[in-house]
Amino acid sequence: MLERSIDRVTRTPALGPGFGGDRHKAALVIAPGDLRATDPFFLMADDNITLGGSFGESHPHAGLETVTFMLNGTMEDTGGRLEEGDVEWMTAGSGIVHSENATVSSGMRLLQLWVILPEAHRNMSPRVQILRRAEMPVHAEPGVLATVYSGKSGEATAPTVNAAPITLVDIRLEPRASFASHLPASQNAFVVVIDGEVEAGATGERLAQDTVGWSASIGGGESLLMLRAGDSGARLLLYAGQPQNIPVVAKGPFIAGSHEELARYYSEYRAGKFPRAGTMRPVPSADSRASD
Which residues bind Fe cation (predicted)? Predict the structure, then answer.
């Protein structure tokens, strides 16, 4: 089996002002502009809130998927509530509006990833999947706990429906524990270190907290990415996805295949033709909210 290496390492910049005023700090874990190297991943933002309250305004997306991982705290809007460890997997497709009346808790932190859709699915009907940590399959072995949100790890296979093959695994390693993560060799992969330190890949590239290690596709068949925690253990998120190798045009919250398609997204949004994400999943009852 082919063993992967870490081809390049990037560091998440220091948090800076976000769109939510002084209590909101943010940074780009993946900056847009180099899709040839990150395909199918377009960008990833790290959003941090110091004081709870309203969070942004309702806004549209089209031509992409957003994958929102709640690292800390909670976020709630008209469509439901995300707790720590939950993931919202939103396929915007032909267009959707979300984050209506969103509120967040103090200390909230989330990572939001934008994934380009395959050309044949770019204008599919939108959908929202809420992936609850407690309901996700888990792969466990000595010193390793891997929660699978998309794709598979060992015998653990997530129920997530993907427009394009995507792997997302939350991996927790005890001190000096090792884990061999199996991935399709054709996929581009990256590791985000949340806590601790790991040695990754065939050459044992050292990845510390707030660094991202990239492993490019290496052909067909299966591959493995070796991970070994440092003396204090580690937590990391592993993402992998099939490169789409298609030209895209991006502006604001939309990713399109042409400027004409981009203009159509803006026109349909302004005409009120995008459905609202809040209608696509059940709203928590008053009783369940009161018990939180």
Answer: 59, 61, 98, 100
